[in-house]
Amino acid sequence: MVGEPRAARGVGYALSHLPPDTDVPWWRVVNRRGAISTSRASGLAQRQRALLEREGIVFDELGEASWEQFGWDPYG
pTM for the full model? Predict the structure, then answer.
């Protein structure tokens, strides 16, 4: 939503430096397709998806959440 080229890199950098006991809701950050981009190897992707699903987020068969469900068009 930042709308700046390479802004995702800055967001990723900031999130990767959060302390383990942070109260920042990092799991709410998904990529522009509504998909999870965290590392699958570390188990973070599964944890992130579970946290999002607990908040009512629904993923399709491609693992993407619908932006329209939340009233936002990322391309509009």
Answer: 0.79
